[in-house]
Amino acid sequence: MSGESTRAAKAARIRALLETEGDAVHENTTHLNRVRYEANAAGGDIDALRAEARAIKEDAIERLPELVERVRETVAANGGEVYVADDAADANAYIERVCDDADADSVVKSKSMTTEELGVNDALLDAGVDVHETDLGEFVVQVADEAPSHLVGPAIHKSREEITALFNEVFDPDVPLETAADLTRFARDHVGERIERADVGMTGANFVLADSGSIALVTNEGNARKCAVTPDTHVAVAGVEKLLPSAADLPPFAELIAKAAGGQDVATYLSLLTPPVDSPTIDFDAPDEPLGDPADRSFHLVLVDNGRLDMREDDQLRETLYCIRCGACGNSCANFQHVGGHAFGGETYTGGIATGWEAGIRGEDATDDFNDLCTGCSRCVDACPVEIDIPWINTVVRDRRNRGADPDAFDHLVSGLTPDDDPAGVDLQKRLFGNFGTLARLGSETAPLSNWLSRRAPVRAAMDRWLGVDRRRDLPTFERETLADWFAARDPLPSAGTADRAAVLYPDAYTNYALTERGKAAVRTLEVLGVDVTLAPCHESGRAPLSQGMIETARTQAERVSDALAPALDDGRDVVVVEPSDVAMFRGEYEKLLDDATHERLAANSYEIMEYVYGLLENGADADALVGGDDVAYHGHCQQRTLDLAGYTEAVLRRAGHDVVTSDVECCGMAGSFGYKSEYYELSMDVGADLREQFERPDAAGRRVAASGASCHEQLLALAFDGVPHPVELVAPGGR
Amino acid sequence: MTVREVSRFESSLDAAGVAATRVEAADLADALDRLVEPPAVGVPLGIDGVSLDETVVETPPTPRRLKRAETGVTPVAAGVVEHGTFVLRSDANGSEPVSLYPPTHVGVVRASDLHADFTAAFDELEGSLAGGESAILATGASATADMGELVHGVHGPRTVRAVLVEDR
């Protein structure tokens, strides 16, 4: 079956990148991610700035046609020219004409992803114009004849040693290069000569200011300054989405962009150029003459559409246009940290936001090779300086591709097993994982046979081959007695109902059919603190199908859950959720799946279990009723952290008397079904190794490892930790 | 500008790796001779009674001077206190290339020309950009991490110094 060979090829490609580029990518991205956290923590109210920046971008994209007209006028009034290019060929043809008019045989460029998107370099080379990259990362990539692997750090996949070997081989310098300082000096001098001789300087633009016809360039090296000011002719190339109304809109971006990109307080250089600039021209062929007349300068602003105006009309892809290309979504992504942009990226763009860009520019099928690497862990949502819901963009594009792909010949075989609402095009593997709840119910009903079967090698070989479930993964162990069975057959603890709170516990499929102990612990904990507890029916939240891009199935499930919980909400019960990914659904994605009133009521009254316990303790419940005394190493769930909920778990564990250390990896690597998939198993385990390494350090080693997420639990077991209870199991009183 | 803001600017400059020296206008020429490593190239500072002609700094800039100079001396139109930032005008004298090409940049900023933060600086910049001007907000020395570790001094200066002129 083609699915199996495709998966094997994908696994092999990922394996090769893990081996060749993984170490450098990991070192660089995790460094950038760490310094981003430090910079954001150091100054000001980052979230207020993000909200401000978001609002400015929303407004600018809304007003885009008007801003395009405005910038045409202002640039023309300044003495420059604006060209709005429909597509790459159109843009390249214009740039070639500019070079031709300037009699140019060489162009120097500062870093610009938009020119990468256009393929300007190849177009100019074909036209007989030499193109020299001046950003040192781009220069490395150009010398190596490779594609950038990161939005901000194009050569982030290369170690210093590799760059040293590359330069020594290609340039054969008299004295071999060794240190980073050697390499920088060599590259600067090499590139510097080209800047002096170039006829045209080409830059991107981080922002274009319509009211003044200015461009803003954010750099650290100073190469963009030199490219813009040294040759007489300056061409700036920018996507139309870079337009902002005026300089008054810039401060939040000036504060945010360097923090998000590289943990800097501000970038070294923020150039605000209103070209043609007033700086004198520089003719290195007349070295002893005073600098030349600014009037000899010319300027061209190429604004590129190339699919962006259609993205603006697309309610789901539109927010991609707010992206300021800081790369934080890649740096904060556990998968990206391990494979980098050569796996997690399209032809031009990389990281989580790449799905939006590549889908909008080249078409949704251009994302097929990498879109699944977004697991929906949501860590990038917090990292994004303009609050883009990057996982949602990935989900939407996945959903559209499911609909667009050819129906799979084998689908009818499992249609009874997977009664979902998504089209026949969804592949078998996605459909299987998207219907986890049904499988879990069947697994529980047929336990222990199901557990025995799922450990049989021939069964696992067949699942691997036909369904893409990696045979190296242990499957969940299902319980014959479900949480619902247990709950129905017991009496509440005597303390239940003594406090002024009533709750309905939402049992996800994992908690109801497999990890029932955490559900039981949640009930006992709530009751010992005086809460009257009922148990909701086990309906899936929709998380599983959503992660496979099966939005309609997720919507149906969301409606079923909200209907099932409505009577309890009507009765004034709080909804308490054990699985963090489900409380994240209720608060987050349900906004897109349910009507506003239904979502808002559910979101406002839903609590993650340990968050709820924290609230009870804050409101007078007695922490002495809880169990403590362990040394715990706790791994919070990725989506739980994005919702700022992990802190409650730590606080409750401490108040119950536990000693706690926590992990700070972005994700355990399992991410729901991701780590079960044959093509991603090795990547998943590579990501997990970061977590294992943290919990093997002296401050964590030997502690009892706990995790909030069911899939984190499975991953930590696979990483050879024992037990791995949910934190609520560590504080729950004993008994039935 | 209050004395306190000038001190805050100095500490922000320090955090950005920029050494600052306070001088009175009358002593500026002498101070530059002490601070500047020759050969140096400069553009007029626009401060009454101060001429670079009395100093080691050569004017006007030529391509050869830009390439040969160890130090470039320019006026700084304004400082941003919060970040230790220079606002450099792209003027016809050549402040932009003189602050960019030599390995050391000495920026001369008047203590009366400080903005508290970017928002205040942009209030003023909005008008000047609309008037066709350009400016560089420069914070510290040029840098790259593209070669495997952080290196200062790439296409722009490796060392940046601030001379704060206290003009009463």
Automatic annotation (TrEMBL), chain A:
Report the GO molecular function annotations.
Answer: 4 iron, 4 sulfur cluster binding; oxidoreductase activity
The 4Fe-4S ferredoxin-type domain extends over 363-393
- Tell me the keywords, alphabetical order: 4Fe-4S, Electron transport, Iron, Iron-sulfur, Metal-binding, Repeat, Transport
Q: By its UniProt entry, which InterPro entries does this protein fall under?
A: 4Fe4S_Fe-S-bd (IPR017896), 4Fe4S_Fe_S_CS (IPR017900), FTHF_cligase-like_sf (IPR024185), Helical_ferredxn (IPR009051), LUD_dom (IPR003741), LutB/LldF (IPR004452), NagB/RpiA_transferase-like (IPR037171)
Q: Does the keyword Metal-binding apply?
A: yes
- An individual GO BP term: lactate metabolic process
Q: Quote the SUPFAM superfamilies the UniProt record gives.
A: alpha-helical ferredoxin, NagB/RpiA/CoA transferase-like
| Protein name listed in UniProt | Iron-sulfur cluster protein
Q: What is the species listed in this Swiss-Prot or TrEMBL entry? A: Halarchaeum rubridurum
Q: What is the lineage of its organism?
A: Archaea, Methanobacteriati, Methanobacteriota, Stenosarchaea group, Halobacteria
Automatic annotation (TrEMBL), chain B:
According to UniProt, the name of this protein is L-lactate dehydrogenase complex protein LldG
Pfam families, A to Z: LUD_dom
- State the SUPFAM superfamilies in the record: NagB/RpiA/CoA transferase-like (SSF100950)
Origin organism of this chain?
Halarchaeum rubridurum
Q: Where is the LUD domain?
A: 64-165
Q: Name the InterPro entries on file.
A: FTHF_cligase-like_sf, LUD_dom, NagB/RpiA_transferase-like
Q: Which PANTHER family match?
A: LACTATE UTILIZATION PROTEIN C
